[in-house]
Design brief:
heterodimer, A: seven-stranded mixed sheet, 7 strands
């Protein structure tokens, strides 16, 4: 693998699990650089990240939400000249040993973004009924607009090439960004596909989507995707 | 309904409206002078006070609309006020959205620059040793 790869870890109050995620990444993908984007945490997240050697830490002055934090990482990757950026959550849910699988798939060059999917084949992931229903509705919506092919549209375990970085540096949804990001990519003429991965249970922290927010989440993302269908998206210029 | 007695625009109402409109104009101008209100947003309020001045000076306008729509005089008055407030609130949410967008970009740039500065200082320290 000759491509320069940056693993972006967006972290909001993830002091409990962050160190172990970074250690796993070091073991499973030592050739990749690591960036922690601390999204205005109230706990020791930034301190823990800074204490680890060879980890870049970008600390946002206040909480921007997962979308704003990831976009900070995309901008960083773009400016530092990385070829590929991988998103890996700080809660220990994403399988660090499959970062290489994502990158190798992207290295083949026929795709711009690869999603690690929990649904392709039996990956041992069984969310609750309500969550399944919501995710399936969203996936249908995304695929209706974006032309199909992705079953796990909410998975945040992804690898993206520079074309995607240039697009996302300019356009990236604020919260609950994953499904809409696929639509934006499609509208900008980029290609995404998914490969199966086996996710773990989250090791600590709490999901950002609580049941009472689920409906708001659905409606908001649906509205965003509907509006995106009538928008035009442009790439940020290539960094010198 | 049409036969119901139309409450006319009495002189006292007109004077009250004119005085209020003039006070609003003066207040808005004072806010701009003290730098508490931006000119671009002041224009909106000046337009509103202009409209209410016009109504005070020529109550016939509202009476004619009321007659054309076959509604009470006051209904037209409140209807216009409501539409104006709706417009202002919509304008505000647009402005807030733009501000929050810029706020996000600034926060991101600040974080990226802070990281860059920290890196440069670290290199400088390493070079010095």
């Amino acid at each position: 693998m000759s491509a320069r790869v940056l693993i972006i870890i967006p972290a909001y109050n993830e002091a409990e699990t962050l160190a172990s995620v970074i250690e796993h990444l070091r073991r499973d993908a030592p050739e990749c650089d690591i960036l922690v984007v601390d999204d205005g945490s109230n706990d020791d997240t930034a301190k823990i990240a800074r204490a680890m050697a060879n980890v870049a830490v970008v600390q946002l002055p206040f909480n921007l939400g997962i979308g704003g934090a990831m976009q900070t990482g995309f901008k960083f990757a773009l400016r530092q000249g990385y070829d590929i950026a991988v998103q890996c959550d700080a809660d220990g849910q994403h399988p660090t040993d499959q970062v290489r699988t994502l990158v190798e798939r992207l290295d083949r060059g026929d795709l711009d973004l690869v999603v690690g999917s929990r649904y392709v084949a039996d990956t041992g992931y069984t969310p609750s009924l309500g969550r399944r229903l919501g995710k399936s509705l969203l996936s249908r919506l995304v695929n209706a607009v974006a032309g199909g092919g992705i079953t796990d549209t909410t998975s945040g375990f992804r690898a993206a090439n520079r074309k995607v970085l240039r697009l996302f540096a300019r356009h990236y949804p604020e919260d609950y960004p994953e499904p809409e990001a696929l639509v934006i990519m499609y509208k900008a003429g980029l290609r995404a596909a998914e490969i199966p991965v086996i996710m773990r249970e989250r090791q600590g922290g709490v999901t950002s989507i609580r049941p009472q927010n689920a409906l708001y989440y659905m409606v908001k993302v649906a509205l965003a995707i509907f509006v995106d269908a009538f928008r035009k998206f442009t790439h940020a210029p290539e960094e010198p | 309904m049409n036969d119901a007695p139309q409450l006319g625009f009495q002189a006292a109402h007109r004077v009250g409206l004119l005085v209020l409109s003039v006070l609003l104009v003066l207040f808005v101008l004072e806010l701009v002078r003290r730098g508490r209100l931006k000119e671009r947003y002041a224009l909106l309020w000046l337009a509103a006070s202009g409209a209410s001045l016009a109504i005070g000076a020529f109550p016939g306008i509202v009476q004619r609309i009321a007659a054309a729509l076959r509604v009470q005089y006051l209904t037209v008055f409140y209807g216009l006020s409501f539409l104006f407030l709706l417009g202002i609130v919509l304008g505000f949410t647009v402005i807030i959205s733009r501000l929050s967008e810029r706020n996000r970009e600034l926060a991101q740039e600040l974080a990226l620059l802070a990281h860059k500065v920290a890196q440069m200082e670290k290199h400088k320290r390493d070079d010095a040793h």
